[in-house]
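Example record

One chain of 379 residues, shown exactly as stored in the release files.
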Amino acid sequence: MKRSVILLLTAALTLMTATSVLADATDDLITKYYQDILDRNPGLPEVGGWRSEVDRIVTLGIDVKEVFIALGKLFFNSDEYTLQSKDNSAYLTDLYQTFFDRLPDQGGFDFWKDLLDQGLARNVLFNFFAFSDEFRLFMEARLGVSSSSPENDLINDHYRGILNRMADTDGFNGWLEMMHDAQCGGAAAVRTLSLQITSGFLQGPEYALRGRDDVEFLEDLYNGILRRGATLEEFNGWIALMSQGMTREQVLQSFTDSPEFQLRVQEVIDAADTDACPIEGSWVGTGVSTTPFDFEGDPCGGFTLNMTVVNNQMTGSGTAGPDTFIVSGSVDTNGTLNGLAEIQGTPVATFEGSLTSTSASGTWQDFFGCRGTWSATKQ
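Predicted structure tokens for this chain:
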């Protein structure tokens, strides 16, 4: 008894210590952002406010590294930073100190400064630092290894990259619920919703109020859609196309049709938790016979099937040659189905099988000696 109590107290103390260490590390990083970007120490209310915001975003299932990328974007684009009127050298040094926790090496500094001096947008250069492996490793050394699901990242990227803010809880959860439903619906549903999310953010009133010009619009696409920087030639190429009449809608379609973005969408498709998807809904399928003849020597045939599953009950109908039959049955919590087919109230066949969130299959046997298999897909 005493040993159990000691073990429980030790575990609780260890958890409290780990939580305290993580909170201290978070506070240190917030303070570092103020010092490296805004050149001042934060007040205690500022640290506490951002710590609460970090905690809130992490509870949404967003990787803490993503939170600090968004925080950096907010700080670098804030009025307080803009009013400092820093030149390219100072801006570049701030990026190195913020994301790499070091002063720039001469080779890297000269390379990036030359691009800035040639006209590369600062927010494009920001992406190279924020999405770099060096920043990832720095954050993991400070806060530990963490990650988030592809669908969470995809949605969060729109808040940070397009709206330049942290995700609000209700909005994020609403989009995430829709994405989980789409994942249950299959690849086409995920692709469709991904485009709807992008269009919804870029065509919504909040984005319109930002008053973004073409350069800023492209900055947002690279950050929110592709999660990367761009070469000066690549970026200027898009600007040239837009100056020649290419619309924002056409540019957006080029970004969302790109292999880069479609790879991100495919990762969302592959991450679907089909075990958590509901089996309720409409199903369409067919049955085939594995026996050539019934007891009387008549040929066995196949059938079509339409069924609906609601509250673990299955109902529907089908056709077998000239005959129409009614089906009914039950589906247990494991997705196991047992059913009966009737014609004008007379039982004519039984069938069994299993359902997942997207497909169903099993066997059937009628009362005349025919038997076979059936399969269906969720609509």
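Notes: The chain has two domains: 2-145+157-168+210-263, 278-378.
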